[in-house]
Amino acid sequence: MKKTLISKLQVICGVVGLAFGLAATQSQAAGGHNVDLQKAPINLEDKASLQRGARLFTDYCMGCHSVNYIRYERLTTDLSIPEELVKQEFIFNDKDIFAQMRISTPAEYGKKWFGTTPPDLTLATRWRSPDWVYSYLLGFYEDSSRPYGVNNSVFPNVGMPHIMANMQASVSDEEFKSAMGDLTNFLTYTADPDKLERENIGRWILIFLAILFIPVWFLNREYWKNVH
């Protein structure tokens, strides 16, 4: 009996320890390095913000990073950017509008320049979090000991240069934070582009089920009224 009780306690302690270990791992994956993350201004219904974020991503990020799971055509259908504007301002090569938003730079070049191949960012806000990405974009600071002269408070010793440095120097702090919010908003959209449509369909389904419940309830009452 005593041995059985001890065994049960050991199992319970093991499960609790595993739960805390998983929680710590998830916390580190989301934030990392115990940094206080800033709240990202995410609003997937703000198409103007998503449009600005798409332009920022194309202008500043697509030299090295792709969003392979998104096609240029979705900038038109989802973000209401005119097709001709997408062709003129977002596609910089001979790709058509149904092509994936993929860079042309060979992977080995990125590895040579930065020490590792720049990752695809389609799901960046899912395997990190919107707050992490937003804080990372705002986390660069000067560090002469680093190869590109910058470091990052969220991702220490990151190999990426501060590609937004010139932009940050030319606008106010609030304008820069707003721009990084737009960029994070766009990357949150790319991670789950059907989220708004799915939630909208879900609302209609719940309304339908609520209405359906009324005749079903009366039918059930009528069916069972003579059953004793």
Describe it.
The chain has 228 residues and is mainly alpha-helical. It has a domain at 47-196: Cytochrome c-like domain (Cytochrome Bc1 Complex, Chain D, domain 2, Orthogonal Bundle). The chain contains ten helices and four strands; from the N terminus they run ααβααβαααββααα. Helix 2 (47-61) crosses helix 9 and helix 7 (130-137) runs antiparallel to helix 9. The chain is elongated and about 85 Å long. Residues 1-31 have low confidence and may be disordered.
Short description:
Helix content is 57%, strand content 6%. The protein has 228 residues and is mainly α.
Topology:
Layout: H1 2-30, H2 47-61, E1 67-71, H3 73-77, H4 83-89, E2 100-101, H5 107-114, H6 124-127, H7 130-137, E3 140-142, E4 150-152, H8 165-170, H9 173-191, H10 195-224
Antiparallel strand pairs: 1-2, 3-4
Helix pairs in contact: 2-9, 7-9
Task: For this entry, give a set of tags.
4 strands, 10 helices, 228 residues, Cytochrome Bc1 Complex, Chain D, domain 2
Radius of gyration equals 25 Å
> Reading side by side through the largest sheet, how are the strands ordered?
1-2
Q: Name the CATH class of the domain at 47-196.
A: Mainly Alpha
CATH-scheme architecture of the domain at 47-196: Orthogonal Bundle
- The CATH superfamily of the domain at 47-196 appears as Cytochrome c-like domain
N→C terminal distance: 50 Å
User: Can you count the helices?
Assistant: 10
**Quaternary assembly:** single chain
Please tell me what the overall shape is.
Answer: elongated
Q: Give the integer mean of the pLDDT values.
A: 85
- Residue fraction in strands: 5-15%
Give the ordered list of helices and strands: HHEHHEHHHEEHHH
CATH topology of the domain at 47-196: Cytochrome Bc1 Complex, Chain D, domain 2
- Give the tally of β-strands: 4
Largest sheet features = 2 strands, antiparallel
Given helix and strand content, the structural type is mainly alpha
Low-confidence stretches: 1-31
